[in-house]
Design brief:
With 185 residues, the protein is of the alpha/beta class. 24% of the residues lie in helices and 27% in strands. It has a single domain, classed as 3-Layer(aba) Sandwich (Dihydrofolate Reductase, subunit A).
């Protein structure tokens, strides 16, 4: 069965919003290696509504490699209760999930293929964690305090125990931590 994995850029104060505002002076070879490994292991991309609406005008015309080629050529699934249709420039490899998240993700996981990667989309990541649908969470922690912006975790979430399965420190002080949820037995 396929896995649903997420890799997020995150500041020391938990901000995941607008990493373009605070990450690039810390984006080093270690981060590029982690990103390249992450995208090589996925063949489907999940996007939440907000990330989709922010990325759809940019990425179909972007030349920022290696991610532009990956996101444009890889099938995408947008999760939204409010959108009625989704488009991705000249590519016809995007679909919309409006129904039951657990049912739809379970169907995706049962299809043959590589990992299903969640790109950006911290609200979706929280929903997947809450519903026990996320199999792996990688946090690429940058040594910055963003000071403002949406945070990955909010008060009121359920207790979730995680198991650290990998950790790396990059040359500019980023810490890449990979966790698997500890499933109830």
């Amino acid at each position: 069965m396929r896995k649903v994995i997420s890799g997020l850029f995150i500041s020391l104060d938990g901000v995941t919003e607008s990493p373009d505002q605070w990450q690039f002076d810390h984006f080093d070879d270690g981060m590029m290696e982690a990103l390249t490994s992450h995208i090589a292991a996925e063949d489907t991309i999940l996007l939440g509504r907000v990330t989709y609406q922010e990325w759809a005008p940019y990425w179909p015309n972007a030349t920022d490699e290696p991610y532009a080629s990956h996101i444009n050529n890889t099938p995408k699934v947008v999760v939204s209760r409010t959108l009625d249709k989704v488009e991705w420039g000249k590519w016809d490899n995007i679909k919309l999930i409006k129904g039951n998240l657990a049912e739809e993700i379970t169907k995706l996981k049962q299809q043959p293929g590589k990992n299903i990667g969640v790109s950006g989309s911290p609200t979706l990541v929280r929903s997947l964690l809450e519903a026990d649908l996320l199999d792996e969470l990688t946090l690429m922690i940058h040594p910055v305090i963003a000071g403002h912006g949406k945070r990955l975790f909010k008060d009121g979430s359920s207790l979730k125990r995680m198991e650290l399965v990998d950790s790396k420190t990059t040359s500019t002080g980023n810490v890449i931590l990979t966790y698997h949820p500890r499933r109830k037995e």
